[in-house]
Amino acid sequence: MVSALPRAFGRRALQLTVAASVALGMLLWWLLSTGAAPSPGGKVTLATGVPTGVYARYGELLKQDMARDMPEVDLRLARSEGSIDNLRQLVAGRAGFAIATADAVSTYRSRGEPGAARLRACARLYDDYMQLVVPKDSPVRSTKELRRLRVGVGADGSGVQLITRRLLEAAGLDFDKDIEPVRVGIDRMPGLLERGELDAFFWSGGLPTTAVQHLAQRFPVRLVQLGDLSPALHRQGERTRYYRAAVMPADAYPLVQDGQAVKTIAVANLLVTTDRADAALTEGITRTVIDSRDRIGREVHAAQKVDLRTAVFTDPLALHQGARRYYVSVKP
């Protein structure tokens, strides 16, 4: 009787050990199957744009929210000349994420640029509106009247210059022959216009763009309508299918528009990464982009257009698997 007790106790201990092992195994299986993993961390770079543009300000505010939502991630912001430059930084590994217009992404892919096949999307963000700015007393009333004038066309590698070339073509103007193109960005164009060193400039950005607002506060300017170019623009074929006819509301620039809406062209912005980006990191950044809409939108009004229902429409790019995982997790 006495000798049976240790054997019974030993069997009980063995059963408990086996049960604990099974429970631990099930816990590990559950963690793995539900995608639970250590939170991503480390340095991550987001390519934005010129310092006075909407891309840059959006990036600054997103960085603040990332610090709250993913404190182990050190988000760095990299300035750039714009969409095409951002994509080049991305595929070269100098950035992990970037903002770019849908038409720029499509052009990059159609040209077979390095790394084009690796591009993936996290979200559709807000729309950029094409803006043609002239001094208020300028006789220019349409793009066709820019002939022989000094025109700011955006820096090389910018989405602004890409669209500007197509708009000028739609207006029957040759970019290199019919205007004097000044290849600078929004950080320099307002000052050049104010000093009389430019006659007009094109800008593609969210509404309102701070640089244009500040210019209007110190120098009278006017927006030239671009709506008349929409039919000819779309006759250019596949490369212009990402542009849509749009209207800048009368209150976008109260000091500029005299209470009048302005017809123009708009194109969507995308948050872009590559197929090599970490899925958990991409899921987390996508979540922050959607969740931070209202806070960022108070300062960058264009960001109010970021919407869960439209964020998944990232043509011409497929969603990154991490972004897709986020959208599935919040699907009603």
Which short descriptors sum up this protein?
alpha/beta
Please give the structural blueprint.
Layout: H1 4-33, E1 42-47, H2 54-69, E2 73-78, H3 83-91, E3 97-101, H4 102-110, E4 119-135, E5 150-152, H5 159-170, E6 180-182, H6 189-194, E7 200-205, H7 210-218, E8 221-224, H8 230-234, E9 244-248, H9 254-257, E10 262-274, H10 279-291, H11 293-297, H12 321-329
Parallel strand pairs: 1-2, 1-3, 5-6, 5-7
Antiparallel strand pairs: 3-10, 4-7, 4-8, 4-10, 9-10
Q: What is the percentage of strand-forming residues?
A: 15-25%
The number of distinct β-strands equals 10
Distance between the termini: 63 Å
Individual helix count: 12
What gross morphology would you assign? globular
Order of secondary-structure elements: HEHEHEHEEHEHEHEHEHEHHH
- Overall helicity: 25-40%
Radius of gyration: 26 Å
**Average pLDDT:** 89
| Oligomer type | single chain
Structural class label: alpha/beta
Largest sheet: 10 strands, mixed
Uncertain segments: 1-9, 16-20, 22-36
Written overview of the protein:
The chain has 332 residues and is α/β, with parallel strands linked by helices. It is 38% helix and 20% strand. The protein has helices spanning 4-33, 54-69, 83-91, 102-110, 159-170, 189-194, 210-218, 230-234, 254-257, 279-291, 293-297, 321-329; strands at 42-47, 73-78, 97-101, 119-135, 150-152, 180-182, 200-205, 221-224, 244-248, 262-274.
What's the gist of this structure?
The protein is α/β, with parallel strands linked by helices. The protein is built from twelve helices and ten strands.
